[in-house]
Amino acid sequence: MGTTASQLGKDLLSEYQELTFLTKQEILLAHKRFTELLSKEEKDLPNTRVSMERILSLPELKSNPFRERICHVFSTSAHQDGSLTFEDFLDLLSAFSDSATLEIKSHYAFRIFDFDDDGTLDCGDLEKLVNCLTGETDDTRLGPEEMRQLINNILEESDIDKDGTVNLSEFQHVISRSPDFVR
Amino acid sequence: MARNVNFALDYPLMETGLESPVDEDGVHDLFNQLIAEQSQNGKLSEAYELQQLQRDLEEEEEEEDRDRVTYLSGPRQDLRERRRQREADQQDDNATDSLMSERWSSATMKILSSMPSRTIGRSRGAIISQYYNRTMQLRRHRQSRPSIKDLSRSARPSIRGYGMETDSADTDAAEVTKTQYLVNNLQNLSLSDRIRMLRAMPLSVAAKSELRSLALKKVKRPHPGSQIPCCSRLKYYIIIAFRQSWYSWLSFLHSLQLWQVALKRVSGRFGTGVLSYFLFLKTLLFFNVFLFVVTGAFLVLPQAVHPPALSDERRPFSGLELLTGAGYFSDTVMYYGYYSNYTLRQHCTDDGDGQKLSVSNGTSVECVLRHLSYNMPLAYFFTIGFAFFITCIILVYSMSKSFGQSFRIDKSHSILAMKVFCSWDFKVIKKTSVKLMSENICTQLKELLAEVNHKHVMITSCQKLLKVMVYSLAWAICIAGTTACALSIYFFSQYMHQNLQERSQSPLKAQNPLLNEASLLALPMLVSVINLLLPGLFNLAAWMEDYQSPSVCTYVAIGRNLMLKVSILGVLCYHWLGRVAADFNGIMCWESFVGQELYRFLLIDFIFTLLDTLLGELLWRLFSQKVLKRRRKPVFDIARNVLDLIYGQTLAWLGVLFTPLLPAVQILKLLLLFYIKKSSVMMNCQSPRKPYRVSQMTTIFITLLCFPSFIGASVCVTYTMWSITPSSSCGPFRGLKTMFQAGKLWVQELEKDNPKLSILARAHAYLVENPFFLFVGAGIFLIVIYFHSQVVDGQRKIISLLQEQIENEGDDKKFLITRLQSIHEQKRTPARRLTSQDSSC
């Protein structure tokens, strides 16, 4: 289901309202922004997929270091290329909206941070995560010794069953204890 | 496989003959089902994200002899090599050290990667099972006992109460899948529960809409022999209509949200820290709007419609009134003195010139046409009391909610993990801000690492002594500065007071009225100057002290600023309620005078904030960029600005009793302040470099708004109402001993008029005036607090026990995996030995 025709149907709108955390105005605004990304021919096709490059041209995502992971996580395409339909786009906005539950946010945050998609955050994932956080340039990155220490500390603090990785439940446990997980 | 047979509940799954028993939390259920699926059909599980991994593993399995190491797809190779080098020396001992060591066979890897702890968030089937269990639990909670006549006779009595065996009659046992069970459960939930469950599922919108359409499609057949009575159908329609209107009302409210675009721009550039200042401003605005509506509707409007007879001539309007609030404004509805002390009545006779009022106290005039009467003193008393009471409730509620969000039982561990996982602020979208945030995070991580790993930096006792001396010196400076300012305000106010007294006693003609009015502005200006300059002194002291931890630095700064403001307000309250009220009684309307003073204070505070924004932020930025050639703009000091807001709000609360229109002034001030601060922040500032823990700070600010600010204001107002004699020449309480007496008199009158209400009077006398009930109430609160603290202690103990248990389970898991691996290897090595023997012969 789903359409990218120029107007959203009323029952479709109410369905989206029920299934996501967005309000009616937000859904309409999202629809407007999404259709701006489409070319003229694509506007009439239902269920168009927009490629990752075009999604990444949105100003909200352009400077975000996690932009590619975000596209991959929310994409339902069979080719795993990060392209999004309108419904995937709504999923994205819903997960980042203010009224989303903590569980949804932590679930998607975990998937975004899981760079190799294996269901846990192991040392490689954590290293990539810290590098994304600290930025692109070399003078803001941590040195290899500091990185190793940091990862050891993180695993010591959050890996409860001591298997060397942080799985979803452990991640959610850490998140639930931090009041600043606002996003 | 061991079976956990639950006799308590009759799960329909057990009847359909699935091998695995369904457990309450569904984790073991997933494991068994996943293994069963894999072994039954041998194809990939529904975890399509793991398909790539699985395919690689199966390819590896075909190339048999490489059991030692699994080379997975490309990008991970170099990482594994690095890790192998690190663990080269550890390979011999502790095979159980980490489950990510590469010595597992591909079969083991396959099982590892499809373990429930790794797939619980990933595979669709796992999520659906998890939500099936949750909906089941929710149904059990919501289920009310169905009446016996609705059930078939053959149902066993013990399970009649649950009503869920009626499901099996409807569903076709042969084709049931997890999805259908979930859909079934969703149907049986109420609409709001269903919507909530659907929203909370971490599936894609397409999958959720499928579930929803399935849930809506199947119509639940009504039980045989039971009709839906027409009144419940009507109730159903009413509920639907109500829900539709509620949704549209919510959307409408959301569209009305004040300043949404502006707040988004601020948060996009500066993050959640600076945003919290503006949100706090918005909260204060709503408090003031509420106050204004209440006082406006109950006090200002009735009095404005029935103006009292004016005794003096009105002073002409000159522009100075806007600043001083005196002059023309002093005889308007703005101040306490204007309000009448009698019951307002509508005119009963039809003479054309408006309101003829009966001036006597409380004697009723029989009105033929209208009986509308409005007891002004009582209204004044109860309106103020009611407004304060409701504000108190709202404040305490928001404070406890905010506190509940930011307080955690187990705060000591996992600072680093929390920082890494939670510190990225996704609201920020501007590129330079993103870069700045990355730099901040990097610095914070480095600092935290240093703090965590090198906990004890040895400092000599000489250095310690030096540190202590520096701290005490800084504190001494701050306290001395605060005391000096408080004393200066005290003496200056005394001087102004004497001046005023002399002037009121000397003849009118010898004075310059404008100069007199202007001199009233001197005290507010002094206070505002102190408020502006002294925080600078505190900053200097903090720079001298050089705190290690930035949060301690923030708390110390807040504490010092708070101390300053509390002492200033204390001195001022003493001046107004102690000196002015006592000395001016009978000479003039002291309440109006105090109201005017508060108006002046509020206004001058606003003007100085404006000046500070212009000078402090704009000029400083120009100066630092052009002259000092610094790259960075000045930092927006959130804590100081929020404390300024709290100070202004305290003044407004103090003044409501004396100036019922003061909330309107405060509303205007806050509106203007928002736009000015927003433009200034966008142009001139950058976000704070130090880490800012938003929710903790917000809790602190709401607490400060409640405790020193609101409680102080209400204590002052209560003291005024309870003990101070109102002035005898003006205001609604003239002639009474205290303002509180108005209430007492009313109760006595009620009793006189209607003897049956004497119970009310007696209850009032016992409850309000008897301190015994206060003690009982306080005792009950203390007991409740004690119980809650015991509960929290117990929960802490349970948490540590559970953590131990999870660690043990992790050890079990590692043990089982290594055993599995060794058995697998044993099975393969005889085969290999045979083939190698064959080839060698």
UniProtKB/TrEMBL annotation, chain A:
Official protein name in the record: Calcium and integrin-binding protein 1
Top-level lineage group: Eukaryota
One protein family per Pfam: EF-hand_7
PANTHER family, alphabetized: CALCIUM AND INTEGRIN BINDING FAMILY MEMBER 1, CALCIUM AND INTEGRIN BINDING FAMILY MEMBER 2
GO biological process: integrin-mediated signaling pathway
InterPro entries attached to this UniProt entry: CIBP, EF_Hand_1_Ca_BS, EF_hand_dom
PROSITE patterns to which the protein is assigned, alphabetical: EF_HAND_1 (PS00018), EF_HAND_2 (PS50222)
Ion transport recorded as keyword: no
Positions of the EF-hand domain: 101-136, 146-181
Gene Ontology MF, one: calcium ion binding
Keyword tags: Calcium, Integrin, Magnesium, Metal-binding, Repeat
TrEMBL record, chain B:
One term of GO molecular function: mechanosensitive monoatomic ion channel activity
GO cellular component assignments: plasma membrane
Subcellular location: Membrane
Chain residue ranges for the region called Disordered: 54-102, 138-167
Chief location: membrane
Bilayer disposition of the protein: Multi-pass membrane protein
Segments passing through the bilayer: 275-301, 378-398, 468-492, 521-541, 562-578, 598-623, 660-676, 697-722, 772-789
Residues annotated as domain TMC: 589-695
Bias-annotated ranges (Basic and acidic residues): 77-89
Entry keyword set: Membrane, Transmembrane, Transmembrane helix
Similarity section: Belongs to the TMC family.
Name the record gives this protein: Transmembrane channel-like protein
Species whose genome carries this gene: Solea senegalensis (Senegalese sole)
